Structure formats: C-alpha cells, structure tokens
Amino acid sequence: MPQVxxxxxxxxxxxxSRFGFNEADRGVYRQGFSEADMAARQWLRDRFEELGxxxxxxxxxxxxxxxxxxxxxxxxxxxxxxxxxxxxIFDGVLGVVAGLEVVRALKDxxxxxxxxxxxxxxxxxxxxxxxxxxxxxMTGKLTREWLDTAKDEHGFALKDAMSIAGLxxxxxxxxxxxxxxIHAFLELHVEQGPVLDLEKTTIGVVEGISGVFxxxxxxxxxxxxxxxxxMHMRADALMGMADFAHEIGRIIxxxxxxxxxxTIGHVACKPGFPHTVPGExxxxxVGRDLDEGVMTALAEACERVLSSIARKHKLRFEYEQMSxxxxxxxxxxxxxxxxxxxxxxxxxxxxxxxxxxxDVQFFCEHTRAGLIFVPSVGGVSHAPDxxxxxxxxxxxxxxxxxxxxELACEQKDLAPAGQTAKSH
Length: 424
Fold this sequence. Notes:
This protein is an alpha+beta fold and about 425 residues long.
C-alpha cells in the first residue's frame, strides 16, 4: 500500500512558509493576490511540472495540477494558498501540500488512478475582499457585480489587485467547474480550534460547516457628563451592550445547541472620551450553528433581548444584517468512508462540526464533498504560533491518501504496505 513521506511534506510546508515570512513577528503575510501569494502559486506550478502533471492557473487564480486520465471526472484535493496577516504556516497550505504528497505516493507505488486526481491551490479564501473567490468561482457562486464592487479593508479594489497580479478579473467568471466534471471534493485542514488537541483525538471527520449571520448593531442613548449625570438618569449605550453580552449564555441555553456560537467581536463607543457617558455604541454580532432553524431562533432571540434592554436603558436599538450564510453539510457517504478508513489505520477519530469557513462549504451543494481535520496545538490558528505536530500531519495525510485511492482507484488488489503496487 502506498505510504506518504513526512519529510517531503515538511520540506514543502517550510518552503511555502518563506513566501511572505516576516522576521520581526515570525508571521506569514501572504494575502490574496499579493506578490508573496502569486510567488507561492508559481512554486506550486513548478512542483506540478516536476511531477509531470498537467497544470494551469484558471481565471480566478486557482492553481490546478492534474494526474491521471483526461476523459473522466476528477477527484479534487484542494485548499488555499493565501493567508491572513501574521498567520502560521499550516492554515490552508497543509491541504495543498497533502494533495501534492498523495500524487507523489501514488507515483512512487506506480499506481495510475482510474479517475484523475486534481490538486488545487485555491485563491483568496481568507476573505481579504470579503469572500472565498477561488471556491466561489469554481462552483458558480461568483457574479460580475461582486467582482466590480469588492474591496479590501483599505478600499483597494479586487479588480485592481487581480490586474496587478497579471489576471483578467472577468476571466474568473470562466473558472466554473460543472458537477459532472467532479467525482468528489476532499480537503485536509488543521482544526483551528482546541477540541481534538484537548481530547487527544487524531482525526476530526467534519459533518458540516456552521452557518453564519453577521449584524452591525447600534444602541443610541445620550452622551452626558461623567461627573454630573446621576446614574439613574443616564441613557448609557455601553451599559445596554454590556447587559446584552451577559445574556448571550442564556440565549444559547434556551434557543441554541452545543454547536451554537454568538460573538461580539467589535465595539466602538461614541464619543469615546473618558469623561463622557457613551451616547452611542456600535458593535457586531456574529452567530453560528450547524442548523439554519437554530440560527433563526438565535437571531430572533438576540433581537428580542436587545429591544428589551434598549427600553430598560432608555435607548434606541438599530441593526443591519450584513450577511447570512446557510450551513453546508458534508456528504454522508464520504463521512462514513473517512471514519471507516480511520478505523482501518487505527486512528482515533470523531465526527464534529466546523465553526470556521473553508473552501469545502461551496462544494457541498455542488458535488459530494468531505473535510478532514488534524489537531491544532492549543487550538491556535491565524497566528505565528499556530502548530500541528508532524506526526499528526503524517497520519492525516495518510488517511487522505487512503480516501483518494478508494475514490479514484477502481482496482482494489493493491499490495500491502511496504510493497510496490502497480495498476493493471
């Protein structure tokens, strides 16, 4: 049976980490369509070339390498190449390198798959411009209007970033992959949370990606002198928001599940002066759950509680829903297969949701799609000290290889581990 080589995997991950590496804080800065991002994509194409794989970059910036026959739907192994500012070295990159290693392992064992395997480094997954461009483009979820209007937090247009990177922005609309071109979609990713590490479990078989709603909220009261305004006469907007923060646990207990999350991530007081009672507070609410009905219940409860708190504190409550993303469910057959393969390899595993978004979520309604997690030490991600043990990476990549062979190789009479197997 083919075996992955952890030394090759480690070498590849370290090599990619040099693109955008910052010595000062030891973080990686490889935002979508930056020079570092495009250099990393060329690095991946060079590796495809070395392996004799057909390769290309599509109009959305996805780098695609193909191994196997040309006339059948492909098993896609994909994750992203870009990073958030000051990221670690594993987020996204692991899934791309693991796909590369799957092809190497099959070639080492002289196995040619019956269905082609495509390794894809997707573009702009981290949302510099507000979406997951590469996955959206491949699954037909991209519009010309969005391409025309998308900007990053500094107001820099997506169209301009793509043009500077040598891409025609509207060519992204031609990156669509029909469902009949895809045999299955698989992604391997670090968990980015603490569950697997705390429970000493090697593999997470993901059942689905939580849906997300985001609100921009405002409580409006009256600014006043912090020394002269009696406490009982104030219309303190921050006190209203603080009361709501204390209610989050109760809202989840009454209307949510163990998979529910509600977060106040950004708060801005106005006028924001130490000696002035806050007359207005702007804040965000982000809610998540794997069940859209639960999401709706949580959202309705948040609105009721905030309206009640506003009346109590003599405030006016306003909010705008910025986005509502439905949950995405992984394929039941792939979940069963991944769990069975983990059992065969003697790997501890559990079925779990993903609270974070991933490329796979756009493929869940497009084809059969599955996601494998390996542990993140301490649950740390999107930070320079993100870490996953190489032994866990090796196990996760071997599981990915076993799953790919199940999907792409019709011949099952493969030699045992340690022996060479050839396709017939």
